[in-house]
Task: structure prediction
Amino acid sequence: MELVEETPFRFRIEPHGAMRVPGVVFASRRLLPPKDDGSLTQVANVAALPGIVRASYAMPDMHWGYGFPIGGVAATDVRAGGVVSPGGVGFDISCGVRLLAADLDRSEFGHVAEKVLNGLSRATPRGAGRGAVWQLSRDGLEHLLAEGSRYAVERGWGVQRDLERCEDGGAVDDAEPGRVSARALDRGLGQVGSLGSGNHFLEVQAVDEIYDEGLAGAFGLRPGQVCVMIHCGSRGLGHQICTDHVRRMDESMADRGLSVPDRQLACAPVDSAEGRAYLGAMAAAANYARANRHVLGVAAGEVVREVTGRGLDLVYDISHNLAKIESHEVEGHRRTLCVHRKGATRALPPGHPELPPDLREAGQPVLIPGSMGTASHVLAGVAGGDAFHSTCHGAGRTQSRHQAVRTIDARRLRRELEHSGIVVRGSSARGLAEEAPTAYKDVDAVVAVAEGAGLCRRVARLVPLGVVKG
Ligand SMILES: Nc1nc2c(ncn2[C@@H]2O[C@H](COP(=O)(O)O)[C@@H](O)[C@H]2O)c(=O)[nH]1
Ligand SMILES: [Mn+2]
Ligand SMILES: [Mn+2]
Result:
């Protein structure tokens, strides 16, 4: 795949073959994926989607994914036959990050660290399919799919202010629980308030460095502050919805005369029976994921209060696996677009009407986990942000899980983490090796490139104090 360096941190793949638009990769030379991981070919494949506009984008944390690369962003024109592709959202629909801040300094945390981490470990169900913080009836689950975190607050979980600090006020309005299969409902029923496994985590962190004092203040962050970051998504429910709709779209493509370079890019016009069915179910999964992070955050807040006497305030909650119908200007015209972000985070600029009043001047907080042994970051959206106001979502993998397990000694890793003062709870030896910091890119370099490319700005850097791994 030939890449042309257009400007620092921006590479272009010229349209060729079935590509309808160019590919644009935001990266430094060092962060570019190896040619043999297939993700640059995926950028080119996505550029062939019917109705795609401007470019097929990839963020600096990009790596290979199902159909779309992780770190991929693509928008299609809804009124010009543009398609939606479940592979452009991923199996963990609305996987995302929630950051909460404590009125506690890291100097006060050391002597209670073990106690807090033990409490968080007990309060956080994790692993494949086991346990949930909130046991719901089938009727309750349907309410939650329609109303997301708003339903949780209504039922006594957390406070109204939490909703203002959530993307979409805690729920998307276009969810259609009736589009969710019985199998997906069954899988989701006993998992509301659970982490899942692998890359999902609940981490206690400290603010280590502030890059922009004004923005950090607006987000409620100060140097040395203890925070809790939660990364998880829509569990078995989202996975089943993706599986159901990839199959359905795959079956309908020939009849609709649609073809794509890779079967994993199965898609349907947004404005079609299959497209609408997927988007309605996907939105229900998005509401599930937000409520999932919400109740985990409330449970974590109770533990922190019990041990330290201080509570947790929500900084922000944002997804990084979602398709959204948004209005953007393309070639001088306002268009209604279906924006896929898969392992990419929306980053609204200052002044955007969708931001709550207290964040409107600052821009949207963007939450970037790094790894359990390195830093994580808080960024902010900027005016003129490219890729439909999107940026990276993490460090991004350099090694597959399989490669990591083959090369990393889990016992040694656990010792090294504990030696650096990071309390580790949960996770099997295999799980720990899969998620080793060395299996990921350098998150500091990723966010510096994202900022250098004009996608966002850096606000604060956080370091881990303890982690509960899925
Ligand atoms: N702070 C931590 N970050 C972590 C950990 N495990 C993974 N990660 C980062 O999350 C992103 C997002 O993952 P994805 O599954 O949504 O693609 C990933 O790229 C890593 O940078 C952790 O334990 N702590
Ligand atoms: Mn996930
Ligand atoms: Mn994720």
Observations:
- Residues 92, 95, 200, 233 surround manganese (II) ion (ligand 2) (CB under 6 Å).
- The chain has 14 helices and 19 strands.
- The longest strand covers residues 457-469.
